[in-house]
Amino acid sequence: MRTADSQDDDLLPEYDFASMEGGVRGKYAAKLKGSTAMKLPSTRSIPPSVVIPELAYSNVSEAADWLCHAFGFVERLRIGNHRVQLTYGGGAIVVTEQRVVPES
After folding, report:
1. Contact 95, 60 (CB under 8 A)
2. The 3-state secondary structure of the chain, one letter per residue
3. How many CA atoms lie within 13 A of 1 on its CB side?
4. What is the mean pLDDT of the chain?
5. What whole-number distance in Å separates Cα of residue 77 and Cα of residue 46?
6. What are the backbone dihedrals phi and psi of residue 37, each rounded to the nearest 5 degrees, phi first?
7. Nearest to 61 by CA among 88, 86, 82, 91
8. String of b and e for 9-26 (b: at least 16 CB within 10 Å)?
9. Taking 90 as the threshold, does the pLDDT of residue 34 lie above it?
10. Which of 22, 23, 50, 86 has CA 20 to 30 A from 97's CA?
11. What's the CA gap between 59 and 79, in Å, rounded?
12. Mean predicted confidence (pLDDT) in 26-54
């Protein structure tokens, strides 16, 4: 059985940390020891939420506007006309374009 401290994890050759200059293997492992939660570094494009569900709608702009008006979400980021990130308190959702899969 593998443990968190195990180095026997069958890494692919391109992930050989021994040959990486300044690379740190498992740089978040120390934060995880003895804890069930950890906060990853935040970025400008990803909200700091633990879970970010995606909701697909045929009209992303209309859906995002409706969600903001009906439930109090706030638009955080809009990517073209196919993706909108909405936040509410410490949570977030992503409204995406519904894709139609042709029947075979």
Report:
1. yes
2. CCCCCCCCCCCCHHHCHHHCCCCCCCCCHHHHCCCCCCCCCCCCCCCCCCCCCEEEECCHHHHHHHHHHHHCCEEEEEECCCEEEEEECCEEEEEEECCCCCCC
3. 2
4. 76
5. 9
6. -135, 145
7. 82
8. eeeeeeeeeeeeeeeeee
9. no
10. 50
11. 14
12. 66
Residue 66 has pLDDT above 80, yes or no: yes
Whether the Cβ atoms of residue 63 and residue 52 lie closer than 8 Å to each other: no
How much is the pLDDT for 99? 85
40 compared with 87, residue with greater pLDDT: 87
Name the amino acid, one letter, at 46. I
> Is the model more confident about 40 or about 50?
50
> pLDDT at residue 98 above 80?
yes
Residue 56 token pair: 């697909």
